[in-house]
Specification:
The complex is a heterodimer of chains A (301) and B (368).
Chain A lengths: L1 H30 L7 H19 L2 H25 L4 H24 L20 H6 L2 H19 L1 H11 L1 H6 L4 H27 L10 H11 L4 H20 L7 H16 L24
Chain B lengths: L21 H8 L1 H25 L4 H13 L2 H26 L7 H16 L7 H30 L3 H24 L34 H18 L1 H10 L2 H6 L4 H17 L3 H6 L12 H11 L4 H21 L6 H22 L4
Helix pairs in contact in B: 2-3, 2-15, 3-4, 3-14, 4-8, 4-11, 4-13, 4-14, 5-6, 5-7, 5-11, 5-13, 6-7, 6-11, 8-9, 8-14, 13-14, 14-15
Classes of the chains: A mainly alpha (301), B mainly alpha (368).
Chain lengths: 301, 368
């Protein structure tokens, strides 16, 4: 019985990790004032990058770096197009998601001559092989990295000078500009971080599955955005919301579909988010200047 | 009554709108300049596409000639392109309609999916009347379904201020789950993800029946419905007071309130209309091609509708050529598949979209 419960907790955690990492990434981008719908594509690109580098080099740790860089690459396009190009953030995100889907599919064909999946590979090796599900999760280096990143991200956003400047870029860009710090550079930093975190989320997915499959992000980037909103644009809050969503997904796998329709559980995260958005469970306030390109006042150099 | 000229509706930037003056203003309001971002984006996209293709070891000239021949170089190719353009006209109109009030409908995918299921469900009803009425009934039901699904984000925005972008994205996923649930609980044939065939009275004719050269291509009478919808919508926006109200709301809630309009009611109207249009997106596939609903039949047409509306600058009549262009690129993937992976065309579409929003920002809305 206890073993079953521990197994279930391990499963919830395992499922929640990619959501949490991506949601934290979303928080960094949006705290700086840049809407990041491209998160879905960042996850997918990150997963592909991690798989491609791991297969090419045989070293999963290089794959982790490759996945993060691939995510950051897509994010930096989003940043350039929206911050300096001043293009619409929502449209840029949607276009990049289309780009990521097409490019990874094409990449599968070119690199692995397959329309559906890459070659299989070994993920990051675990520390020891305990027979309990929870202990084996705790022995996974990537899981430990994810936990560290979650708390580290929260501290970075709320306890450091950079975090304060980033939040100012989203809430009061004019004031940040007044201090002499660059609004656009800080926003780009936030977007770039969302690329690293989103790429790591994709890396986790692909390392769990030991191969890349077509469209494997499967809407997780959008759920992560939802979790970020439920978590009120705070890394720890977002991670908690992801645990909730992860629990819903675990139930979906484990509960008999005759008792509760699996589709209801599948839709649960979205419905919960709708309720939160509507303000029926506490109000969620986005950063004040979210979605607006920053424009300097005349006469400032 | 004329709609405001020089209204460039390519983005959601609120700053500096309509502040043109002098010769630059005349030029900027002309449709020549209006077309410039689209032309530059398509040109730039095709150039980048050529570069990508040559990186893969294929001659760009060969690539583009195969692409042109296979799509618009033969009657069969045209038939395929027109078939792929048909749902894009509906979803493009859907996005363009909501955008008159500066609302973003990212939910066309879910609205189209639910509308398609209703088309198949009503179409397969054994008590369905014969030819024109059967089709009409199915279409009305689908538009109603799409309209209801679109009304939800409208109502939520009007009552609670929730942003329609995130709400429509969320509702897409709820729609996927709902359709999935309905399919498993009796709407799908056992062991499949498709519904039963629709009655004769609900079917739309293939164009081959009148134009034999289209033989083998799935293009059907839904194309005419789509074009008619575009014309009617353009007229409605230009002539009716409601059309102008939506555009006033698009200029900002302040302007609309000043004119004595109910912002909440107009928001619901814009999203309901958008949902109804997207709900008809399945007509071509369900009533005119396969005669049943199949999971995944939308093929991303709801999302691509955003690109279609954008390139058309949200003008209903321009949605038709814009849909043709994206339809050609969508079908083009299959044509060039023996040279390069067909996903390259998806990448091309995304690049054109990115370039368009960039150029539109630079050229379309010069700040004073």
């Amino acid at each position: 019985m206890i073993e079953l419960a521990l197994g279930m907790i391990a499963q919830v955690l395992r499922i929640s990790v990619p959501y949490a990492l991506a949601a934290i990434g979303g928080a960094f981008s949006e705290r700086g004032g840049v809407i990041n719908i491209a998160l879905e594509g960042i996850l997918l690109t990150g997963a592909f990058g991690a798989a491609a580098v791991t297969i090419a080099t045989g070293n999963p740790w290089l794959g982790v770096i490759g996945g993060m860089l691939a995510g950051a690459l897509l994010a930096s396009i989003h940043g350039l197009v929206t911050i300096w190009g001043r293009a619409d953030q929502i449209l840029s995100g949607l276009a990049l998601n289309l780009l990521a889907l097409g490019a990874t599919r094409g990449g599968l064909k070119i690199l692995y001559d397959s329309a559906s999946n890459s070659d299989r590979f070994e993920g990051v090796p675990a520390l020891g092989r305990p027979d309990s599900a929870l202990l084996s999760l705790l022995g996974q280096p990537l899981f430990l990295v994810a936990v560290a990143v979650t708390f580290g991200a929260h501290a970075l956003l709320f306890r450091t000078r950079f975090g304060l400047a980033l939040r100012a870029a989203g809430d009061g860009p004019r004031a940040l500009d007044g201090t002499g710090l660059s609004v656009n550079l800080h926003r780009f930093g936030g977007v770039l971080l969302s690329g690293f975190f989103g790429g790591l989320a994709g890396t986790w997915l692909v390392m769990e599955q030991h191969s890349f499959t077509d469209g494997m992000s499967n809407g997780r980037g959008y759920i992560a955005l939802a979790a970020m909103i439920v978590g009120k644009w705070r890394p720890l809050g977002a991670a908690l919301a992801c645990l909730l969503f992860g629990a819903a997904e675990t139930l979906q796998i484990r509960v008999d579909s005759d008792v509760v329709p699996t589709q209801l559980l599948q839709a649960l995260p979205y419905i919960v988010t709708l309720v939160v958005l509507a303000g029926w469970i506490g109000r969620a306030h986005p950063p004040l200047h979210l979605g607006e390109p920053y424009e300097r006042e005349k006469g400032r150099s | 009554m004329t709609a405001p000229r020089g209204r460039v509706g390519g983005g959601v930037d609120v700053a500096g709108r309509g502040a043109h003056s002098g010769i630059a203003g005349v030029l900027a309001s002309g449709w020549v300049v209006g077309l410039a971002p689209a032309v530059l984006a398509i040109g730039g996209g095709l150039l980048l596409g050529g570069l990508l293709v040559s990186l893969l070891g294929v001659s760009p000239l060969e690539f583009y000639s195969v692409l042109a021949k296979g799509t618009v170089g033969s009657a069969f190719g045209w038939g395929q392109v027109l078939f792929r353009a048909t749902p894009l006209v509906f979803t493009g109109l859907s996005v363009a309609f909501a955008f008159q009030a500066r609302l973003f409908n990212i939910g066309a995918e879910g609205q189209m999916l639910l509308g398609g299921l209703v088309l198949a469900w009503v179409g397969a009803w054994t008590g369905l009347p014969g030819a024109p009425f059967g089709v009409l009934l199915a279409l009305l039901a689908a538009a109603a379904m799409g309209g209801v699904w679109g009304a939800i984000p409208g109502l939520l925005k009007a009552k609670t201020g929730s942003h329609e972008v995130i709400v429509t994205i969320l509702l897409n996923f709820v729609a996927f789950a709902l359709v999935n649930y309905l399919l498993t609980r009796g709407l799908a044939l056992p062991e499949t993800v498709r519904t039963a065939e629709i009655q004769e009275g609900a079917r739309l004719a293939r164009l081959t029946e009148w134009v034999p050269v289209f033989r083998g291509a799935p293009v059907n009478a839904a194309l005419f419905l789509a074009c008619a919808a575009a014309v009617l919508l353009q007229l409605w926006l230009r002539l009716s007071p409601h059309g102008l109200s939506l555009q006033l709301l698009g200029e900002g809630p302040g302007a609309a309130r000043y004119a004595g309009l109910s912002v909440g009611r107009l928001t619901v109207l814009a999203m309901t209309g958008a949902g109804a249009l997207a709900g008809l997106g399945g007509a071509s596939f369900v009533l005119g091609y396969k005669y049943y609903f199949e999971e995944g039949f939308t093929g991303g047409a709801g999302f691509l509708g955003i690109a279609v509306a954008l390139l058309a600058r949200n003008r209903p009549l321009w949605v038709v050529p814009s849909a043709l262009f994206f339809g050609a690129l969508s079908y083009g993937g299959f044509v060039v598949n023996r040279l390069v992976p067909r996903e390259l065309l998806d990448v091309l579409q995304a690049v054109i979209l990115l370039l368009f929003i960039l150029f539109d920002q630079r050229l379309g809305r010069k700040r004073t």
